[in-house]
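Weekend entry, working from home. Most of the wet-lab plans are on hold until the incubator is repaired, so I used the time to fold the two sequences that have been sitting in the queue since the last round of cloning. Logging both here for the record. First:
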Amino acid sequence: MKKEDSGKSTESMKHVELWFLFAMMIIIAVTVFALTNASPVPVRFLIWTRELSLALLIFLSAAVGAVIAILLGFIKQMRNRKKYKIREKHMAEVEKENTSLKTQLVELEAKLKEALKEKSQQPASGQKAGDQTKPGLSPDDWADEPPQDDLPDFLNSKSSD
């Protein structure tokens, strides 16, 4: 584990500890509130009427709220996990394509160097085979990019990408 990772881990643990302390304080406050209000109260739901202890009603309400919050968090976590797997799969495809393109680039550069070497070794038109007054440029002689007239046809075409 790197030092940077351990710092983030410690920070996230402090975050979890703070949430745990906050949750414990809420639970204690709800318990104290419920126990101080323990008298029976009538509870009506649609056609159902019942008399329950207010403490029990408070605990049931808090428990139902906690279950709903946990379920919503679980659903969100499952969606995030699904998105993560899709993105991870896409990233693997992009890396594979990147590797393929790098291989193609190396091959094309080798073809270009070979074509330029062949062109520099051929006598210019109007010259004899042994008379080379103007040798071709090698890739080392290029300033920023190769002269366009020395490139093979497949590299001279401009794409609109």
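Second, folded right after the first finished:
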Amino acid sequence: MLLKYVYDEHLAQASYFVGCPGGGVALVIDPARNIDPYLRLQDETGLKIIGVAETHIHADFASGGRELAASTGAILYISGHGEDDLAYDFTTAGVNVRTVCDGDTIMVGDVELAVIHTPGHTPEHIIFQITDTGAHEPMGLFTGDALFAGDIGRPDLLDATGNAVGSSDGAARQQYENVQRFKQMPDYLQVWPGHGAGSACGKALGAVPSTTIGYEKRYNPAFQQPNAEAFVEWLLEGQPEPPHYFAQMKRVNRVGAALLDTLDTPEVLGEETLLAAVTEIRALVIDARSTDRFAQHHAHGTLNIPGTSRQFNTWAGWFVDYAAPTYLIADENDAGRLIGLLRAIGVDEIPGYFPAEIVEQYDAQLETVEPSEAFVQAQNGAVILDVRGKTERQEERIPDSLFMPMGEVANRLDELPRLQDIIVQCGSGVRSGIIASLLENYGFRVRNLAGGIEGWKRAGLPVENG
């Protein structure tokens, strides 16, 4: 057997290329929308991709299942579990689809993948137990979002995204039952999860690419809860805020993301179109330059999300309107990469991008304030707005600061003061720069706190803990 690990650090998403060298064939589990890595592995290994398998209807990225099946002619294996809008519907996908259910097996040469239904993260969720048939015993599990290194998949996404309101408690209990099943499995089984640290599909994912059932039994908090009630309370508490784009991904992945070659190629656009986009169309225009470059020169009405950030597309997903076009401002040698990152979360309507030099001449500036000066301004009436996540806030905070998670700000503008200066604060100054650019577009008197709360602490200024 051959196993290759493919990891998207922007979405903390893992996929797997499973091959049988003796049979000359391979299968890919949970592919990303950019299928180039799998096609390269096919060429490098000489193993033909004959199968593509998905563990569930993903919420955090546009699946490449349909794309890879269409490109290679492989069979696309999807779960046959789930009902109505919470089940797959690939009837118009135009690829060779086969549904699998608990107890079914998929053969990839001499490699066997046994399907195990593990509802909880989602109703249709399945995992794959892998056996090299020459060994007669299973080697490991591709656990998708059922089990992670150090954590377990959250059960509240369907509830939080509006796809199945009120389902969190029942789904958490299903996850409890899954843990009991995992406890009965051999310790030696390897675990290859669908995500790593940084994913919003759990609350405390480990950074290691794999683990074992035995290790998780000993150290994963999900395995330490004394009963179902304690487990449910533990699992539902402290889950991170899911980005707004998750609801759209559920809709897209249920029926299959559009094939990339059917999408229009973004064009290089000029200043006249930029001005129309921010004044007449009022489209989302993402300025992907650095926080510092944006602060010096930018076009009013644009949103600054630095393209160098590992979380570029996750942060963009908080603000994208999938019913409207999205534009980019970027250096020409980087525009293609950024468009690919947006495609990875299903942003398909991208008419074009504007070269960065267009806005380098603009006079609009966004003021950055040093922590010591911000402290004085706060004493004189300025409001410090903390836009970090809830868990970060619980650990430490600037005294008397106003808390509003980044993804909630656009919908809570009426709670912000119009007659006071607002100093936006995050962990290091990047997320606060995004929100400062947003608030500037709505006419607020806003500044970005240089260095975030880390810079504040380095300046010796007070923080509250707990």
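Plan for Monday: verify the second prediction. The mean pLDDT is 96.
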